[in-house]
Write a structure and sequence with these properties.
This protein has 182 residues and is of the alpha+beta class. It is 24% helix and 31% strand.
Amino acid sequence: MSNDPSQIPGRIKELREILEVSSFDMAKDTDIPFETYTQYESGKLDIPISVLYTIANRLGTDVTVLITGEEARMDSAAVCRSGKGVQIERYPGYEFSSLAYNFRHRTMEPLLVYLDSSKPPAAQVSHSGQEFNYVLEGQVRVTVGKTEHVLSTGDSIYFDAHLPHSQIAVNGTAQFITIIQE
């Protein structure tokens, strides 16, 4: 199993080609502008986790296949031991660990996220569904739309993920749980 994010675009392209779906149709079917889709598939643009879900759904597979190259196996329960989640560094200073990567047909994605304020912040993203963040350690500045919320250990926020949003560590590092529901 490889959780190297640089392999995700190749997995998408390979699966799309196996299914004989053109990149134009893929972009249209996932409601992603064609130029953006081709940049995702070429690896020139990082793919947000929410977009991975959209692409996986169109390809008729689990997002775990795109992230790890392997099928999720569990149907009734999936345990994730401490430090054993599938870890991905999506952007400098923004690393996450999928806590339910091995559960098939997930309807939400619980992630453990690590932030480092010494790295450039990730750009705002938006995606379908709703999102919940719970701060485990440090302080996190969560921007939803144009409103900023500084959260400390034990604080949480629930928001409409259609709105542009971002999370940044305040003075050092922070760790939080995010649950994304599509």
